[in-house]
Write a structure and sequence with these properties.
The strands form two sheets. Strands 3-5-4 form a three-stranded antiparallel β-sheet, with helices on one face. The protein has a two-stranded antiparallel ribbon with strand order 1-2. 44% of the residues lie in helices and 9% in strands. Helix 3 packs parallel to helix 6. It has a domain of 112 residues: Aspartate Aminotransferase, domain 1, CATH 3.90.1150. By secondary structure, it is mainly alpha-helical.
Length: 197
Amino acid sequence: MVAVNRVYAARLAGMVVLGPDGESIGRVRGFAGPFGVFVRSYAFMRAYGPDLREMSDVAVLNANYVLARLREAYDLPYDRLCMHEFVLSARNLKREHGITALDVAKRLMDYGIHPPTVYFPLVVPEALMIEPTETEPKERLDHFVDSMLAIAREAAESPEVLKEAPHGRPVRRLDEVRAAKRPILRYVFDEDPALVD
């Protein structure tokens, strides 16, 4: 519920509740949670039914397979079997070669792989959150692992390749600090020098 003064009360849209004096006390809307998420989850469960258990097992197997192959090349902050995801750390690459988790993620794009979540969880320095799904075949998992191992080797042999990644993309590295500190929340096309007559 939102409380507003008389000036804004007349501008509220939707259902309103009137006070004892007949004036609106504001818009009222029920919240049933993220309904769309519930519908998609329910549809997924209905579609796959009994196969959900096997799908979950495959996701866990995939994650542990990738973890076992990468444990020697990257720091492993939590040395244990994982469920469907796990966290690696590039802190050894940063300490020894100046290569960050962001550099690893950008370089993965050159190998045709969508980068994983970086810097989360926040308690793990140079975190890489790896989450292979149940739909990935072993060949694709091996391609990912081989790419990650190649990146670890590149960090030692030619770190500048990682610092300049991604290569061959229309947009290379963005100034992420500037984007975070001075975000452009809307773009005024009329002021774009390329579009002005």
